[in-house]
Amino acid sequence: MPHVTAGDGVKLYYEETGSGIPVVFVHEFGGDSRSWEPQVRHFARNYRCIVYNARGYPPSDVPDDVEMYGQDRARDDLLAVLDGLGIDRAHIVGLSMGGFAALHFGFRYPERALSLVVAGAGYGAHPDVREQFARETAEVADRIEADTMLEFGKVYAIGPTRVQFVNKDPRGWQEFENQIRDHSSRGSANTMRAVQGRRPSLYDLVGEMQALRVPTLILNGDEDDPCLDVGLFMKRNIVSSALVLLPRTGHLSNLEEPALFNRTCGDFLHRVDAGRWQMRDPRSMTTDILWTPDE
Asked: What distance in Å separates the CA atoms of residue 53 and residue 84, rounded to the nearest whole number?
């Protein structure tokens, strides 16, 4: 099986399809490389598409030690994929946990990113829910270890921001549930504890956001409540960003609304490739409402 090796020796499984400008897709906690199938089928017509499984998701390695997981390791695993495939710069498209990885990649390695799509990123970021999120991630990790992903996956797959998917596309949702139940219990529990539970709040990263100049698309479903306020916060602090909400859509936007997701991201990528993505006009960043009085 094709793989690249991260700096700490962990092997990461990947697939690539198509040719052209590289696009790397980074999956969410409940997904894996298979979650991007609707995007690979669409974008591989014009781009070199790369998907990979995060550490803890077979056939990538599953370290037993929870300290082998974390937000910085997720960020650097993305770098390892680019380096392992000889890619200098790429468009980075991430959902949820993958959206956090994409954003942190842009903070740390902006010269390696042509653009960032930060989709469904926000869970546990707001200061009002930090303690609740820490408690719930620990509880979920315990449940995964006790019940296994084969059983707990049934519960996780029907959460409040995933019911939209089953209501719209029962067949697609069933495929998602089957796949999440395939995941490693050890890898999922360690990922929940160390990547999800320990990542820093985005509200503590204002300086990094305000310094970011990589073209960035923030994309959320409008019924993905944990991400809505966070998306606005990112939009207000990242001058290279645009914010898009998909209507009547939950967390799994790329699977729930693949055509709309692809069209939205495709327009963004094309504008970046054409050199037509601009920074926000500073005249729009004001506390005035109707007009700016003369000084």
From this structure: 14
